[in-house]
Amino acid sequence: MPELFTAQKPLLTLRQIINMSVGFLGIQFGFGLQNANVSRIFQSLGADIDSIPILWIAAPITGLIMQPVIGYISDKTWSPRWGRRRPFFLIGAVLASLALIFFPNVYALWMAAIMLWLLDASINISMEPFRAFVGDMLPDEQRTQGYAMQSFFIGIGAVVSSVLPYLLTKCGVANEAAQGIVPDSVKIAFYIGAVVFLASVAYTVFTTKEYSPAELKSFGTIEEQQVDYSIIATPVKSFYNKGIVWLIFGAVFTLLLYYYNATHFELPLEKELYVLTLGIASFGLVQLIAGYLLTNNKKTGLVEVVNDLYQMPDTMKQLAVVQFFTWFALFSMWIYATTALAQNIAHTTDTTSKGYNEIGNWVGVLFGFYNGFSALFAFLLPVIAKKTNRPTTHLICLVAGGVGLISFYFFKDKNLLILSMAGVGLAWSSILSMPYSMLTTSLPSNKMGVYMGIFNFFIVIPQILAATLLGFFTKHIFHGNAIYTIVLGGCMMILAALLTLRIKIK
Question: What's the CA gap between 53 and 281, in Å, rounded?
Fold first, then answer.
Protein backbone atom coordinates (compact mmCIF):
# COMPACT_ATOMS: atom_id res chain seq x y z
CA MET A 1 0.00 0.00 0.00
CA PRO A 2 1.53 3.39 -0.98
CA GLU A 3 2.37 5.76 1.86
CA LEU A 4 0.01 8.73 2.12
CA PHE A 5 1.21 12.24 2.86
CA THR A 6 -0.82 15.26 3.87
CA ALA A 7 0.11 18.90 3.48
CA GLN A 8 -0.51 21.39 6.25
CA LYS A 9 -3.02 24.06 5.28
CA PRO A 10 -1.00 27.29 5.56
CA LEU A 11 -1.84 30.02 8.05
CA LEU A 12 -3.27 33.14 6.41
CA THR A 13 -2.29 36.68 7.28
CA LEU A 14 -4.67 39.05 9.03
CA ARG A 15 -5.08 40.99 5.79
CA GLN A 16 -6.07 37.83 3.90
CA ILE A 17 -8.63 36.93 6.57
CA ILE A 18 -10.05 40.48 6.37
CA ASN A 19 -10.25 40.35 2.56
CA MET A 20 -12.16 37.07 2.59
CA SER A 21 -14.61 38.43 5.21
CA VAL A 22 -15.48 41.88 3.82
CA GLY A 23 -18.26 40.45 1.65
CA PHE A 24 -20.23 39.59 4.76
CA LEU A 25 -20.54 43.31 5.47
CA GLY A 26 -22.78 43.62 2.41
CA ILE A 27 -24.64 40.38 3.07
CA GLN A 28 -25.55 41.50 6.56
CA PHE A 29 -26.39 44.97 5.26
CA GLY A 30 -29.12 43.28 3.25
CA PHE A 31 -30.24 41.08 6.15
CA GLY A 32 -30.14 44.03 8.55
CA LEU A 33 -32.46 46.09 6.37
CA GLN A 34 -34.74 43.08 5.97
CA ASN A 35 -34.90 42.16 9.66
CA ALA A 36 -35.46 45.70 10.94
CA ASN A 37 -37.92 46.90 8.31
CA VAL A 38 -39.89 44.08 6.68
CA SER A 39 -42.50 43.77 9.46
CA ARG A 40 -42.86 47.56 9.31
CA ILE A 41 -43.37 47.41 5.54
CA PHE A 42 -45.94 44.63 5.90
CA GLN A 43 -47.91 46.60 8.50
CA SER A 44 -47.65 49.79 6.43
CA LEU A 45 -49.30 47.84 3.60
CA GLY A 46 -52.15 46.78 5.89
CA ALA A 47 -51.05 43.47 7.44
CA ASP A 48 -52.63 42.51 10.79
CA ILE A 49 -50.29 41.70 13.68
CA ASP A 50 -51.22 38.01 13.78
CA SER A 51 -50.68 37.62 10.01
CA ILE A 52 -47.10 38.91 10.05
CA PRO A 53 -45.47 35.51 10.81
CA ILE A 54 -47.05 33.80 7.78
CA LEU A 55 -45.83 36.66 5.55
CA TRP A 56 -42.32 36.08 6.90
CA ILE A 57 -42.54 32.37 6.10
CA ALA A 58 -41.13 32.89 2.59
CA ALA A 59 -37.70 33.78 3.97
CA PRO A 60 -36.92 30.59 5.95
CA ILE A 61 -38.51 28.29 3.37
CA THR A 62 -36.30 29.88 0.74
CA GLY A 63 -33.22 29.22 2.87
CA LEU A 64 -34.32 25.63 3.49
CA ILE A 65 -34.34 24.95 -0.25
CA MET A 66 -31.58 27.22 -1.52
CA GLN A 67 -28.72 26.60 0.90
CA PRO A 68 -28.20 22.82 0.46
CA VAL A 69 -28.65 23.22 -3.31
CA ILE A 70 -26.08 26.02 -3.53
CA GLY A 71 -23.77 24.16 -1.14
CA TYR A 72 -23.99 20.97 -3.20
CA ILE A 73 -23.37 22.79 -6.50
CA SER A 74 -20.50 24.88 -5.13
CA ASP A 75 -18.80 21.73 -3.76
CA LYS A 76 -18.69 20.43 -7.33
CA THR A 77 -17.77 23.75 -8.98
CA TRP A 78 -14.27 24.78 -9.95
CA SER A 79 -13.09 27.50 -12.33
CA PRO A 80 -9.36 28.30 -12.59
CA ARG A 81 -10.30 31.97 -12.86
CA TRP A 82 -13.29 32.33 -10.52
CA GLY A 83 -12.72 29.50 -8.06
CA ARG A 84 -15.23 27.38 -6.18
CA ARG A 85 -17.36 29.67 -4.00
CA ARG A 86 -16.75 33.13 -5.47
CA PRO A 87 -19.05 32.78 -8.53
CA PHE A 88 -21.98 32.30 -6.14
CA PHE A 89 -20.91 35.29 -4.05
CA LEU A 90 -21.14 37.57 -7.07
CA ILE A 91 -24.32 36.14 -8.63
CA GLY A 92 -26.18 36.41 -5.33
CA ALA A 93 -24.92 39.97 -4.79
CA VAL A 94 -26.21 41.20 -8.14
CA LEU A 95 -29.64 39.63 -7.61
CA ALA A 96 -29.92 40.83 -4.00
CA SER A 97 -28.99 44.39 -4.97
CA LEU A 98 -31.75 44.46 -7.57
CA ALA A 99 -34.24 43.08 -5.02
CA LEU A 100 -33.26 45.78 -2.50
CA ILE A 101 -33.98 48.46 -5.10
CA PHE A 102 -37.43 47.13 -5.98
CA PHE A 103 -38.64 45.96 -2.55
CA PRO A 104 -39.60 49.32 -0.94
CA ASN A 105 -41.51 50.37 -4.05
CA VAL A 106 -44.19 47.68 -3.78
CA TYR A 107 -47.75 48.88 -3.24
CA ALA A 108 -49.57 45.66 -2.29
CA LEU A 109 -49.07 43.07 0.43
CA TRP A 110 -48.76 40.16 -1.99
CA MET A 111 -46.02 42.02 -3.86
CA ALA A 112 -44.11 42.56 -0.60
CA ALA A 113 -44.33 38.82 0.21
CA ILE A 114 -42.93 37.93 -3.23
CA MET A 115 -40.13 40.48 -2.93
CA LEU A 116 -39.17 39.11 0.48
CA TRP A 117 -38.87 35.67 -1.12
CA LEU A 118 -36.72 36.99 -3.97
CA LEU A 119 -34.52 39.04 -1.65
CA ASP A 120 -33.96 36.14 0.73
CA ALA A 121 -33.22 33.71 -2.11
CA SER A 122 -30.62 36.09 -3.52
CA ILE A 123 -28.96 36.69 -0.16
CA ASN A 124 -28.80 32.94 0.44
CA ILE A 125 -26.98 32.41 -2.87
CA SER A 126 -24.22 34.69 -1.61
CA MET A 127 -24.24 33.74 2.05
CA GLU A 128 -24.19 29.92 2.03
CA PRO A 129 -20.79 29.56 0.28
CA PHE A 130 -19.24 32.14 2.64
CA ARG A 131 -19.63 29.74 5.57
CA ALA A 132 -17.91 26.94 3.64
CA PHE A 133 -15.31 29.45 2.42
CA VAL A 134 -13.74 29.76 5.89
CA GLY A 135 -13.62 25.98 6.23
CA ASP A 136 -11.96 25.75 2.81
CA MET A 137 -9.35 28.42 3.37
CA LEU A 138 -8.32 28.31 7.04
CA PRO A 139 -6.66 25.62 9.17
CA ASP A 140 -8.54 24.61 12.30
CA GLU A 141 -6.47 26.83 14.61
CA GLN A 142 -7.55 29.92 12.63
CA ARG A 143 -11.22 29.08 12.07
CA THR A 144 -12.49 30.66 15.27
CA GLN A 145 -10.60 33.81 14.24
CA GLY A 146 -12.00 33.57 10.72
CA TYR A 147 -15.61 33.22 11.80
CA ALA A 148 -15.07 35.93 14.43
CA MET A 149 -13.87 38.24 11.64
CA GLN A 150 -17.06 37.44 9.73
CA SER A 151 -18.99 38.33 12.88
CA PHE A 152 -17.17 41.65 13.04
CA PHE A 153 -18.15 42.62 9.49
CA ILE A 154 -21.65 41.27 10.02
CA GLY A 155 -21.91 43.52 13.07
CA ILE A 156 -20.65 46.61 11.23
CA GLY A 157 -22.97 46.02 8.27
CA ALA A 158 -25.95 45.39 10.50
CA VAL A 159 -25.28 48.46 12.68
CA VAL A 160 -25.25 50.87 9.77
CA SER A 161 -28.17 49.22 7.96
CA SER A 162 -30.33 49.10 11.10
CA VAL A 163 -29.92 52.78 11.97
CA LEU A 164 -30.09 54.10 8.40
CA PRO A 165 -33.82 55.02 8.49
CA TYR A 166 -33.25 56.76 11.84
CA LEU A 167 -30.25 58.71 10.53
CA LEU A 168 -32.04 59.63 7.31
CA THR A 169 -34.98 60.91 9.35
CA LYS A 170 -32.60 63.09 11.38
CA CYS A 171 -31.33 64.47 8.06
CA GLY A 172 -34.83 65.55 7.06
CA VAL A 173 -36.04 62.57 5.04
CA ALA A 174 -39.73 61.82 5.57
CA ASN A 175 -40.36 59.01 8.04
CA GLU A 176 -44.15 58.90 7.80
CA ALA A 177 -46.37 58.09 4.85
CA ALA A 178 -49.99 57.36 4.09
CA GLN A 179 -51.35 53.84 4.57
CA GLY A 180 -50.07 51.60 1.78
CA ILE A 181 -46.93 53.68 1.13
CA VAL A 182 -43.45 52.88 2.45
CA PRO A 183 -41.79 55.96 4.02
CA ASP A 184 -38.93 57.61 2.09
CA SER A 185 -36.51 56.95 4.97
CA VAL A 186 -36.94 53.20 4.39
CA LYS A 187 -36.78 53.48 0.59
CA ILE A 188 -33.50 55.39 0.52
CA ALA A 189 -31.99 53.02 3.12
CA PHE A 190 -32.73 50.08 0.80
CA TYR A 191 -31.14 51.88 -2.17
CA ILE A 192 -27.96 52.50 -0.17
CA GLY A 193 -28.01 48.84 0.90
CA ALA A 194 -28.05 47.71 -2.73
CA VAL A 195 -24.83 49.62 -3.46
CA VAL A 196 -23.04 48.43 -0.30
CA PHE A 197 -24.05 44.80 -0.87
CA LEU A 198 -22.64 44.64 -4.39
CA ALA A 199 -19.48 46.63 -3.64
CA SER A 200 -18.41 44.65 -0.56
CA VAL A 201 -19.01 41.23 -2.10
CA ALA A 202 -17.15 42.29 -5.25
CA TYR A 203 -14.20 43.33 -3.06
CA THR A 204 -13.91 39.81 -1.60
CA VAL A 205 -14.35 38.19 -5.02
CA PHE A 206 -11.51 40.17 -6.59
CA THR A 207 -9.04 40.16 -3.66
CA THR A 208 -9.19 36.48 -2.68
CA LYS A 209 -7.93 33.33 -4.36
CA GLU A 210 -9.17 29.84 -3.55
CA TYR A 211 -7.47 26.48 -3.21
CA SER A 212 -8.09 24.03 -6.02
CA PRO A 213 -9.91 20.73 -5.34
CA ALA A 214 -6.57 18.89 -5.53
CA GLU A 215 -5.04 21.22 -2.94
CA LEU A 216 -8.03 20.84 -0.62
CA LYS A 217 -7.76 17.07 -0.87
CA SER A 218 -4.06 17.23 -0.01
CA PHE A 219 -4.90 19.19 3.16
CA GLY A 220 -7.22 16.44 4.45
CA THR A 221 -6.27 13.96 7.12
CA ILE A 222 -5.02 10.53 6.06
CA GLU A 223 -8.28 9.02 7.34
CA GLU A 224 -10.30 11.46 5.26
CA GLN A 225 -8.25 10.72 2.13
CA GLN A 226 -9.02 7.01 2.45
CA VAL A 227 -12.80 7.56 2.61
CA ASP A 228 -14.84 7.87 -0.57
CA TYR A 229 -17.53 10.35 0.44
CA SER A 230 -19.40 9.87 -2.84
CA ILE A 231 -20.59 6.42 -1.68
CA ILE A 232 -24.24 6.30 -0.58
CA ALA A 233 -23.88 4.74 2.86
CA THR A 234 -27.60 4.76 3.72
CA PRO A 235 -29.51 1.56 2.81
CA VAL A 236 -32.35 2.01 0.33
CA LYS A 237 -34.71 0.54 2.94
CA SER A 238 -34.04 3.49 5.26
CA PHE A 239 -35.09 5.97 2.58
CA TYR A 240 -38.42 4.18 2.19
CA ASN A 241 -39.10 3.45 5.87
CA LYS A 242 -38.34 6.96 7.09
CA GLY A 243 -40.10 8.53 4.13
CA ILE A 244 -43.31 6.60 4.80
CA VAL A 245 -43.28 7.53 8.49
CA TRP A 246 -42.82 11.25 7.79
CA LEU A 247 -45.39 11.24 4.99
CA ILE A 248 -48.07 9.49 7.09
CA PHE A 249 -47.30 11.67 10.12
CA GLY A 250 -47.64 14.89 8.09
CA ALA A 251 -50.74 13.73 6.24
CA VAL A 252 -52.54 12.65 9.42
CA PHE A 253 -51.88 15.93 11.18
CA THR A 254 -52.96 17.87 8.10
CA LEU A 255 -56.28 16.00 8.06
CA LEU A 256 -56.76 16.47 11.82
CA LEU A 257 -56.11 20.20 11.45
CA TYR A 258 -58.58 20.41 8.56
CA TYR A 259 -61.21 18.48 10.52
CA TYR A 260 -60.79 20.67 13.59
CA ASN A 261 -61.16 23.88 11.58
CA ALA A 262 -64.19 22.51 9.74
CA THR A 263 -65.94 21.64 13.00
CA HIS A 264 -64.76 24.68 15.00
CA PHE A 265 -65.16 27.34 12.32
CA GLU A 266 -66.06 29.95 14.97
CA LEU A 267 -62.57 29.61 16.55
CA PRO A 268 -60.28 27.89 14.01
CA LEU A 269 -56.59 27.24 14.45
CA GLU A 270 -54.25 29.44 12.40
CA LYS A 271 -53.83 28.52 8.75
CA GLU A 272 -50.06 28.86 9.23
CA LEU A 273 -50.12 25.42 10.87
CA TYR A 274 -50.79 23.91 7.43
CA VAL A 275 -47.28 25.02 6.45
CA LEU A 276 -45.90 22.88 9.27
CA THR A 277 -48.01 19.76 8.67
CA LEU A 278 -47.64 19.83 4.88
CA GLY A 279 -43.91 20.48 5.30
CA ILE A 280 -43.60 17.27 7.34
CA ALA A 281 -45.44 15.33 4.64
CA SER A 282 -43.28 16.90 1.92
CA PHE A 283 -40.11 15.84 3.72
CA GLY A 284 -41.40 12.27 3.72
CA LEU A 285 -42.16 12.51 0.00
CA VAL A 286 -38.65 13.78 -0.73
CA GLN A 287 -37.18 10.74 1.04
CA LEU A 288 -39.41 8.37 -0.94
CA ILE A 289 -38.33 10.02 -4.20
CA ALA A 290 -34.67 9.68 -3.16
CA GLY A 291 -35.25 6.00 -2.38
CA TYR A 292 -36.89 5.42 -5.78
CA LEU A 293 -33.99 7.12 -7.59
CA LEU A 294 -31.43 5.07 -5.67
CA THR A 295 -33.35 1.86 -6.39
CA ASN A 296 -33.01 2.65 -10.10
CA ASN A 297 -29.27 3.44 -9.74
CA LYS A 298 -29.77 7.16 -10.29
CA LYS A 299 -27.40 8.83 -7.85
CA THR A 300 -28.65 12.38 -8.23
CA GLY A 301 -27.92 15.45 -6.11
CA LEU A 302 -31.18 14.83 -4.23
CA VAL A 303 -30.04 11.34 -3.26
CA GLU A 304 -26.66 12.63 -2.09
CA VAL A 305 -28.17 15.43 0.01
CA VAL A 306 -30.66 13.09 1.73
CA ASN A 307 -27.88 10.54 2.33
CA ASP A 308 -25.63 13.25 3.79
CA LEU A 309 -28.49 14.28 6.07
CA TYR A 310 -28.71 10.72 7.40
CA GLN A 311 -24.91 10.49 7.79
CA MET A 312 -24.40 13.73 9.75
CA PRO A 313 -21.39 13.65 12.12
CA ASP A 314 -22.21 13.43 15.83
CA THR A 315 -20.92 16.94 16.52
CA MET A 316 -23.28 18.29 13.88
CA LYS A 317 -26.25 16.47 15.43
CA GLN A 318 -25.47 17.93 18.85
CA LEU A 319 -25.09 21.42 17.41
CA ALA A 320 -28.34 21.04 15.46
CA VAL A 321 -30.41 20.87 18.66
CA VAL A 322 -28.69 23.97 20.03
CA GLN A 323 -29.29 25.82 16.76
CA PHE A 324 -32.97 24.88 16.79
CA PHE A 325 -33.80 26.65 20.05
CA THR A 326 -31.38 29.52 19.39
CA TRP A 327 -32.96 30.55 16.12
CA PHE A 328 -36.50 30.11 17.42
CA ALA A 329 -35.57 32.77 19.99
CA LEU A 330 -34.01 35.10 17.42
CA PHE A 331 -37.00 34.89 15.11
CA SER A 332 -39.35 35.90 17.93
CA MET A 333 -37.31 39.09 18.37
CA TRP A 334 -37.04 39.89 14.68
CA ILE A 335 -40.77 39.46 14.07
CA TYR A 336 -42.17 41.07 17.20
CA ALA A 337 -39.65 43.63 18.48
CA THR A 338 -41.43 46.64 16.95
CA THR A 339 -44.92 45.46 17.90
CA ALA A 340 -43.92 44.36 21.42
CA LEU A 341 -42.12 47.60 22.27
CA ALA A 342 -44.83 49.77 20.72
CA GLN A 343 -47.32 48.05 23.05
CA ASN A 344 -45.08 47.87 26.11
CA ILE A 345 -43.55 51.36 25.95
CA ALA A 346 -45.57 53.57 23.56
CA HIS A 347 -48.87 51.82 24.41
CA THR A 348 -50.08 51.84 20.81
CA THR A 349 -50.86 49.43 17.97
CA ASP A 350 -51.69 52.15 15.41
CA THR A 351 -49.09 51.76 12.64
CA THR A 352 -49.76 55.27 11.32
CA SER A 353 -49.24 56.98 14.67
CA LYS A 354 -46.19 59.04 15.59
CA GLY A 355 -45.52 56.85 18.65
CA TYR A 356 -45.50 53.62 16.64
CA ASN A 357 -43.17 55.00 13.97
CA GLU A 358 -40.83 56.46 16.58
CA ILE A 359 -40.62 53.03 18.20
CA GLY A 360 -40.09 51.53 14.73
CA ASN A 361 -37.06 53.78 14.27
CA TRP A 362 -35.84 53.05 17.79
CA VAL A 363 -36.00 49.31 17.10
CA GLY A 364 -33.68 49.98 14.17
CA VAL A 365 -31.34 51.79 16.57
CA LEU A 366 -31.54 48.91 19.07
CA PHE A 367 -30.77 46.42 16.31
CA GLY A 368 -27.82 48.64 15.48
CA PHE A 369 -26.67 48.46 19.09
CA TYR A 370 -26.85 44.67 19.32
CA ASN A 371 -24.96 44.35 16.06
CA GLY A 372 -22.43 46.92 17.25
CA PHE A 373 -21.92 44.99 20.46
CA SER A 374 -21.61 41.85 18.34
CA ALA A 375 -18.83 43.41 16.28
CA LEU A 376 -16.92 44.40 19.42
CA PHE A 377 -17.44 41.07 21.18
CA ALA A 378 -16.18 39.23 18.07
CA PHE A 379 -12.62 39.98 19.19
CA LEU A 380 -13.37 38.63 22.66
CA LEU A 381 -14.63 35.21 21.56
CA PRO A 382 -11.25 33.71 20.52
CA VAL A 383 -9.82 34.81 23.87
CA ILE A 384 -12.63 33.14 25.87
CA ALA A 385 -12.44 30.03 23.69
CA LYS A 386 -8.69 29.75 24.27
CA LYS A 387 -9.10 30.01 28.06
CA THR A 388 -12.07 27.60 28.19
CA ASN A 389 -13.29 25.84 25.04
CA ARG A 390 -15.70 26.54 22.21
CA PRO A 391 -18.85 24.93 23.71
CA THR A 392 -18.37 26.75 27.03
CA THR A 393 -17.87 30.04 25.20
CA HIS A 394 -21.13 29.50 23.32
CA LEU A 395 -22.98 28.61 26.53
CA ILE A 396 -21.92 31.84 28.25
CA CYS A 397 -22.96 33.95 25.28
CA LEU A 398 -26.37 32.31 24.84
CA VAL A 399 -27.25 32.78 28.52
CA ALA A 400 -26.43 36.49 28.14
CA GLY A 401 -28.69 36.67 25.08
CA GLY A 402 -31.59 34.92 26.80
CA VAL A 403 -31.41 37.27 29.78
CA GLY A 404 -31.28 40.22 27.39
CA LEU A 405 -34.49 39.15 25.64
CA ILE A 406 -36.35 38.51 28.90
CA SER A 407 -35.39 41.98 30.14
CA PHE A 408 -37.50 43.51 27.33
CA TYR A 409 -40.49 42.90 29.60
CA PHE A 410 -39.05 44.74 32.59
CA PHE A 411 -37.52 47.82 30.95
CA LYS A 412 -40.12 50.56 30.38
CA ASP A 413 -37.51 53.19 29.49
CA LYS A 414 -36.47 52.64 25.87
CA ASN A 415 -32.89 53.73 26.64
CA LEU A 416 -32.46 50.88 29.15
CA LEU A 417 -33.05 48.44 26.31
CA ILE A 418 -29.52 49.22 25.17
CA LEU A 419 -28.42 47.07 28.13
CA SER A 420 -30.65 44.28 26.85
CA MET A 421 -28.96 44.55 23.49
CA ALA A 422 -25.52 44.10 25.05
CA GLY A 423 -26.58 40.58 26.07
CA VAL A 424 -28.22 39.91 22.71
CA GLY A 425 -25.13 41.25 20.95
CA LEU A 426 -22.82 38.89 22.82
CA ALA A 427 -25.08 35.97 21.91
CA TRP A 428 -25.32 37.08 18.29
CA SER A 429 -21.54 37.34 17.96
CA SER A 430 -21.20 33.76 19.16
CA ILE A 431 -24.13 32.48 17.08
CA LEU A 432 -22.43 33.76 13.93
CA SER A 433 -19.10 32.13 14.66
CA MET A 434 -18.81 29.45 17.36
CA PRO A 435 -21.23 26.82 15.91
CA TYR A 436 -19.43 26.98 12.55
CA SER A 437 -16.01 26.86 14.20
CA MET A 438 -17.11 23.72 16.06
CA LEU A 439 -18.84 22.20 13.04
CA THR A 440 -15.96 22.46 10.55
CA THR A 441 -13.77 20.24 12.73
CA SER A 442 -16.05 17.30 11.88
CA LEU A 443 -16.65 17.89 8.15
CA PRO A 444 -14.74 16.48 5.13
CA SER A 445 -13.40 19.18 2.79
CA ASN A 446 -15.30 17.93 -0.27
CA LYS A 447 -18.61 18.04 1.63
CA MET A 448 -18.12 21.41 3.33
CA GLY A 449 -20.67 23.26 1.18
CA VAL A 450 -23.48 20.72 1.27
CA TYR A 451 -23.11 20.14 5.03
CA MET A 452 -23.18 23.88 5.65
CA GLY A 453 -26.41 23.92 3.64
CA ILE A 454 -27.85 21.01 5.63
CA PHE A 455 -26.77 22.73 8.85
CA ASN A 456 -28.94 25.62 7.74
CA PHE A 457 -31.96 23.29 8.12
CA PHE A 458 -31.59 23.75 11.87
CA ILE A 459 -31.71 27.49 11.44
CA VAL A 460 -34.61 27.46 9.01
CA ILE A 461 -36.86 24.81 10.60
CA PRO A 462 -37.18 26.72 13.91
CA GLN A 463 -37.91 29.86 11.91
CA ILE A 464 -40.70 28.05 10.08
CA LEU A 465 -42.02 26.77 13.40
CA ALA A 466 -41.79 30.28 14.83
CA ALA A 467 -43.61 31.72 11.85
CA THR A 468 -46.36 29.09 12.15
CA LEU A 469 -46.68 28.98 15.95
CA LEU A 470 -45.79 32.43 17.26
CA GLY A 471 -48.88 34.00 15.74
CA PHE A 472 -50.99 31.39 17.54
CA PHE A 473 -49.17 31.98 20.85
CA THR A 474 -49.38 35.76 20.54
CA LYS A 475 -53.08 35.82 19.65
CA HIS A 476 -54.58 32.99 21.71
CA ILE A 477 -52.23 32.41 24.65
CA PHE A 478 -50.76 35.88 25.17
CA HIS A 479 -53.96 37.67 24.05
CA GLY A 480 -52.13 39.93 21.62
CA ASN A 481 -49.39 40.96 24.10
CA ALA A 482 -46.34 40.49 21.90
CA ILE A 483 -43.95 41.27 24.75
CA TYR A 484 -44.63 37.80 26.18
CA THR A 485 -43.57 36.32 22.86
CA ILE A 486 -40.18 37.99 23.29
CA VAL A 487 -39.91 36.54 26.82
CA LEU A 488 -40.68 33.09 25.42
CA GLY A 489 -37.82 33.60 22.97
CA GLY A 490 -35.47 34.44 25.84
CA CYS A 491 -36.37 31.21 27.61
CA MET A 492 -35.70 29.24 24.42
CA MET A 493 -32.24 30.80 24.14
CA ILE A 494 -31.33 29.84 27.71
CA LEU A 495 -32.48 26.28 26.96
CA ALA A 496 -30.18 26.31 23.90
CA ALA A 497 -27.33 27.40 26.18
CA LEU A 498 -27.85 24.42 28.49
CA LEU A 499 -27.88 22.06 25.52
CA THR A 500 -24.33 23.10 24.58
CA LEU A 501 -23.20 20.92 27.50
CA ARG A 502 -23.92 17.92 25.25
CA ILE A 503 -21.50 19.00 22.48
CA LYS A 504 -18.39 16.88 22.02
CA ILE A 505 -15.79 18.32 19.64
CA LYS A 506 -14.13 15.75 17.37
Answer: 21
Helix axes 354-377, 314-341, angle to 10 degrees: 150
Collapsing DSSP states into helix, strand and coil, what is residue 83?
Answer: strand
Distance CA 398, CA 429 (A): 10
d(CA 244, CA 437): 35
Q: What residues does 83 pair with on adjacent strands?
A: 79
What one-letter code names the amino acid at 156?
Answer: I
User: What separation, in Å, do the N-terminal and C-terminal C-alpha atoms of the chain show?
Assistant: 27
pTM score > 0.85 for this model?
A: no
Are 345 and 163 in contact by the 8 Å Cβ rule? The answer is no
Q: In angstroms, what is the C-alpha Rg of the chain?
A: 23
Other CB atoms within 10 Å distance of the CB of residue 458: 20
Exposed / middle / buried, residue 314 (Cβ in 10 Å: 0-12, 13-18, 19+)? exposed
Burial category of 141 from C-beta neighbours within 10 Å (exposed 0-12, middle 13-18, buried 19 and up)? exposed
In the three-class reduction of DSSP (H, G, I as helix; E, B as strand; rest coil), residue 290 is classed as: helix
Q: Tens of pLDDT along 440-495?
A: 888 877 788 888 888 888 887 887 777 667 777 777 788 778 889 999 999 999 99
CA-based nearest residue to 116, from 131, 103, 135, 132: 103
Q: How far apart are CA 500 and CA 506, in angstroms?
A: 14
CA distance 348 to 467: 23
Residues in the chain: 506
- At 318, the amino acid letter reads Q
Q: What is the DSSP track for 449-472?
A: HHHHHHHTHHHHHHHHHHHHHHHH
- Is the four-CA dihedral 229, 232, 234, 238 of positive or negative sign? positive
